[in-house]
Structures are given as structure tokens and as C-alpha cells.
Amino acid sequence: MFQSTARDTLTFRNNRSQTALPMRRWGSFLPGEGVGGGGVHWNGQTWRFLPSDFLAASHNIERYGPMRPGMTVQDYGVTYEELEPHYDRFEKLCGIGGKAGNLNGEIVEGGNPFEGPRSAEYPNPPMHMTFAQHRFEVATKELGLKPFPGPSANMTEPYVNPLGCQLAPCTYCGFCEKYGCGNYSKASAQTTILPVLMQKPNFTLKTLNEVFQVKLDSTGRRATSVLHVDQNGEEYEQPADLVILCAYQLSNTRLMMLSGIGAIYDPVTGKGLVGKNYCYQVMSGADVFFDDKYTNEFVGAGALGMCVDEYNGDNFDHSGLGFIGGGYISCWTTHNRPIERQRTPEGTPTWGSAWKKAVAENFLKSTNVGAHGGSMAYAGNHLDLDPTYGRPLMRMTFDFTPNDRAMSAFLTERVREIAERMGGREIKVSPREGPYDSMPYQTTHNTGGTIMGTSPADSVVNRYLQSWDVPNLFVMGAGVFPQNAGYNPTGTVAALAYWAADAIRSQYLRDPGPLVQA
Amino acid sequence: MDALVGRLIPTDDLGPGAREAGVVDFIDNQLAGSFGRGERWYMKGPFADGLKTQGYQGEHPPAGLYRTAIAALDDHCRERFEGRTFAELQEDDQDAILSEIEDEELDFDGVSAAAFFAMLQDNTVEGFFCDPIYGGNRDMVGWRLVGFPGARYDYRDYLDHNGEPISIEPVGLTGRAAWNVD
Prior knowledge:
The complex is a heterodimer of chains A (518) and B (182).
Chain A: E1 10-13, E2 21-22, H1 56-64, H2 80-94, E3 102-103, E4 106-107, H3 131-142, E5 148-149, E6 159-160, E7 166-167, H4 189-192, H5 194-197, E8 209-216, E9 223-230, E10 235-239, E11 243-245, H6 249-258, E12 282-289, E13 305-308, E14 327-332, H7 352-362, E15 366-373, E16 382-385, E17 394-397, H8 402-420, E18 426-430, E19 473-475, H9 490-508
Parallel strand pairs in A: 1-17, 11-19
Antiparallel strand pairs in A: 1-2, 3-4, 5-13, 6-7, 8-9, 9-10, 12-15, 12-18, 13-14, 14-15, 16-17
Chain B: H1 2-8, H2 18-21, H3 23-31, H4 62-80, H5 91-102, H6 113-129, H7 141-146
């Protein structure tokens, strides 16, 4: 289900003064492998970005003045309004359960009032909330916030999607993240679209193969084939008129580098673009411990949660705060698997009888309030190739930035205010402090490296995700995000994919060539 | 190993610990298989010590790390406690040594004591809380301790628990003892 690091991994360092070393096993993120990729083991939290997120540079500069030194934030080159029909299409494909907060410009009670206007309500109703969400709802309302159900790709009703694929209601078993769903209750490629594609005579899916290079013709302006290798090490060449890279962000970026498409970004000279604007997600939170109330979080689902969005994007006035962006704050009850979660109050030892007692006492009586912070691009955070390892391995240079830290400190205080009001005995706040650590799991939301934009001077692909350098090559995925917003990326990844597919079908196939003139 | 995991999750007033849960058997099984050989780890050189943020950088896959570190731990104990190994020490002395390793006040020759301790801690917790099908969490003692009902299919009837306890017996991937008819 996860890529084997034995074959391929990354090297990592926090900054250029350090020597990057291989991630010998995954930690902070878990890239998927096999049919369906990470879409098999995801939780299903399926968001739209805010209209202002697509204008992160122009909007914020207009409102707050110049960016901090070193920030390389830029606009997406596509607007929320342009993507709206594609978000809607994806939500219907996946049977997303939720509550609209803005229907065609009308604010709707009970939804997210900050979201961009939607053309339609979610195709399914929201998840069935539990005790922890009820407490979060009360606490946030007391603080004057507007809680709403998190958008979920776990089915809340029996559902047949527009392609005719049937999905079954979620049973709240609490095994979404890191697991495939055995119940056809979680939207994934397998449950929503592959069964239809498999019926098509002109569709072939080659499993257990990895593309390792895109071959170009002598001009370097046209892709002619891809080279791939199977499990036995046998190599194949697949001729192609059109190549669309659909691997994970890290793999797409590396494939561009290994194929020599575009120049690799160098933070010293500022030249090159492939690997630029690598961003992540800045997570923090607070555990809440109850004395006499049971949260019973084993009754859970990957996208069962209540959220508030007052502190995301530019939904609040950032004047004088020293940062831009933000994140949503939520109380998700995704699972309670003791093998990977043993919440203990502040000051508990990490082993021995005191630890055992604290785990036993708090396992069924705790929950968490989390901040899901965005990540703004900086010149020093990037991806390139490591000359020391592999064929070669990609090298990640990343640390949390001054903007990240200021934003996360602000969000974490808001988390504290909410957590303190949820009626527990005590809370334990986990701020995002110290350098980025590549080992503790944070989130598999890696972005950037093949960024989109309005000009070949500052982006790898144009607004239709088409390579500026090689017009018969398109690149999908969160690698095209110029910086990451304060939401889970899948909804936007998919909306961009539908947007690009629409441009390919309606424009490119009729007249192959650049869809945007440089 | 028995002494080590017994100190991390002791048998005490609260009931069974890592020993009764079969954590040593669980870890032994894991180390004898692909995990122990590091088959999914990137184990190509060059190797360097690395920073904390870069994770484990040792040349030993897990089984090698355990073997080397346990030998080094016993060497250290023999030197400090008149020839006695870790397993032969009083529990207070065992705890003191584990605390020193955790606080990075103690290191071994040729192997990172801190890396060993971190892996031992992870694997002990895994052995205590895993599905019994993997050899640990024997008789579901780990799940019973915390109240985890195991791998159940459907909790829809319990969604409106509203903060009250849910009393259901734990179930593993192969069911539970009460299901078996002799």
C-alpha cells in the first residue's frame, strides 16, 4: 500500500548547510503505491480551496503590502470560479457528504460561510457526528465561530455516482487512514471510476510497472514515449502522442528531473523551476481529556468531524500579525487504534507503570482539536537531485518558515481556546516547534515542484497543467500548487485534473500545441 | 528482551503487562521476518550519523540493531554491576539505565542506544496492542486494558453514545475465544 523505501526514497535535510541523508523508512508522509495510489489509504477529507487561495500573491500583496523577504508565493493562474464546475463534478463522482455554506452566493446556515460560492449542494448529507464533535460544536459556538461538518468521502448514504458505480454506507469502523476500505464506503479510484474505465476497449491499465523516464525528440520540445520497468526488471518503451504524468507529487517532480524536462531550480542563483516552491502542511493541536465522559473514538471514520474556518486563508484580518494564510481547526474522530495512538496528559512518562496507567485511564476519554495550517513558499525550500544516492534519489530541503511558525503559533492559540471550552478535565497542547522532523507522521500533503502559473518565467506548467517546455506533456497532482493552502489537497488536485482534462479534450486534441502562448 | 519489555509495560496492579501479552514472541517473529531484515528500508550507503530530523541512519537493519544493542547493553551492565547482565539487575537499576538511555546520557560502542530504545519502545507498544493474529496482545490483554473492542465491522448502532461507555467484548481478525465451540 505504501511505496517501499528499499527501492526508492528521498534524501532529506532541513537546509543547504546540512548533508542530506536518505529517509531510510517513511515517517512524516506515506506515499502510496499500486493501483489507486494514496487514494486507497486516505481519510477522505475533501475540501475546496478558498477563492483567495488561488490569488495568494496578488490578493495578499494588495491587502497587506509586500511579502516577507524570501517568500516565493505566487498566484495559481486559474481562479476558483473557473474550477467550480470541476470541484462539483469531482464531489459528485465521489459522493462527498457535507453541508453547503454558500450556494450560488447565498450563505446557508450550518455550512462553511467562508467557502466560495457552490453551484450545488453536496451530493450526500454530512457524517453522523459523535460526542467529541458535539462538544466542539458547543465550544466554537460559544466563541462566536460557525462550526460545520467536514466534507467527507466516506459514504453517508447508499450512493450511485454519475458513472453508475455503487458505494455503500460507511459503518464507522475507524479503519480509513492507512487502510483500504473493504466496504465500498470510501471514494477511491477503485470504487468510483476504474470499474467503468476497465470496460472500455481502448483502456489498458498496466499494474506493477513504474515509469522511469519520459523520452523527448531531438528538439527537446516533444515527448515521444515513456520508458517503464516491470517487477522483473524488464524495461519497455511505450510510444505516445500525449503524455500525462499522474504519479504522486514527489514522483512527478523526480520524473521531470530524470527526464531532463526543464531546468532544476537552484536556490543560490534563483535559476531553474523544477523542484521550486516545495511546500507542506503545518499541523498542530491539543488533546482534550475528560474525567467522566467517554469519547469512544473507536467509533470513527476518516472524515467524521466538525470544523471551523474563521482562521483559514484570508478569512480574517492579518494586519499586524506578521504572516499570511492560515488553516481550518477541527475535531475529527478518525479512529482509535491503540497500536498507533496512546494519548497521555502533560507530564506523563513515556513508559513504565505510570505510562500504562495514564494510557488505560485516558484511552476512551480523550479527543483532539487540530489546526491544519497552510504552507507558504520560500526560496530555500525545494527539491533537486542528490548526486550521492541512487539513480539519483530526489533531495528534499525543507524547514518550517518564519511565516509557517507565526501562522502556526496563532492557530495553536485558537485551538487552545476551543479545547479549553470543551468541558474536559485538562488539555495538552502540541504546538509546532523546532525544525521540521522528517520522521513523526504529520501528513501526506506534499506540494510544489512542478508549479503552475501564468508565465514560463515562473512556472513549470501553464494554467492547463501543460508543460511550457514540452506541450504534449501535462502534469497532474499537488506538485502544481505554487504553495499549499490550509486544506487537505485532494479536492483541488481533482478539480485541477478535471479542468486540465476538459482543456485537453475541448482544445488540445483539436489543435495540439501550446494552450497558452508564452 | 523479557526484562526490557517487562520494564516498559510492567505487570502491575492494573494487570498483565508486556510479558503476559507475548510481546517478546511478537518482536521475535517480526525480527525473524522481513521487518527484521529491513527489506522495506533503504539500506544503501554511504552512512552517516545524521541529525535527529533525519531519522534512523544506522547500518543495522532492525534485527542487527537489536542484537548489537542488547550485547552492548549487557557489556555496560556487567562493567557497572559486578558482572551482572541487564536481566539480572534489580528493577530499580533496570529503570535507571533505561532512563539514562532515553535521556541520551548513555551510549554504546558502535550502535546508537537512543535509536535502539526508540525502536524497542515502538515495537513493545506494537506487540502489546497488535491484533492477536500477530502473536502479541495475547488474550487481548492490551485491548482489555484500554477498552478497545478490536477490529469490528459496524459501529452505526453506537454513534449516539453521547459520552456514555460502550460495553462490548473485543474481537480480533480471527474472532474471539467465546466464539469457539469445543
